[in-house]
Here is the input.
Amino acid sequence: MRKIFLIKHPVVIVLLSVAMLMAACAPEVRKTTMLSGQFTQVAPDSVFIKVGDILDTVAVVTNGCFNIEIPTVLTRISYLWFRNSEMGRKESQVFFVADGSNLTYVPETKKVISSDKKGLQTRYVDLNDWTERIGAEFEEKIKELGADDAAIEAYTEKTLRKLNRYVLKIAKANRDNVLGAEALWWYEEEDPKALLAILETLSPEMQEHPNIISKKETLGTALKTEEGYPFVDFWSTNCQPCWDLMPKLIDIYHTYHGDQFDMLSVAVMDPPNSPDNQPHKWGLYGIKSSMQNWLHFKFTASTICRI
Here is the structure.
């Protein structure tokens, strides 16, 4: 038999009433976003706009102004950019979130300002302003500390903890929109397992965000290294014993590779005109093709890149 309970307690009735009222009054996100701008000095001919992954369009600038209606996209960053021959072909690019509010591009600050002071775009600007300010403060403090390595290390750790606390707070409050992904991009891997737990609570669409995919790949490597044994091989192109060990390294990799063991090789390259920089029967790319199952990098006086 079905039983029907009547709720008569006044506190319960009030709470239910408040919850229903909040749900009824919650603002509905508009399906389109108004984007406008006014150039007070030299104006471009057009403004190019990319809205998330769904739209590339152009807004014509007339009398220094543009105004365009674009789709609302809460799960990806959008951006605008422009150039003009009178500006020496200089290009400007500005990122924003098409959050359903009225957005205005301000050339003087190179920012997109939202009419909604608590909206997603406003919070996105706040995140960028905060990280920029923290970065500037960090650089000034490091200069002040000079050659005091211990003080620099302590201050660096303190700053990273502060950064991580801030971005994790934002990410937890924005699990279903792009602000969460943007915040987690700043997170330094202080606790890989804790971060992975947060990543797994994001909405399915945000799981496919490039920032989140990249973080998961980085975390996978970090967790594997944390629980296993990384083998890092530094060698030189003019070192004959190094070349002689190549077959042994292949044997080691195939014998021990797994969840508890992985490898990374870094080749230190001699200058092109060095007498020691002689061709070898293996060849760098021959090595890579024979040992393609692990990462290989080459390091020169000016750069390091993946082979």
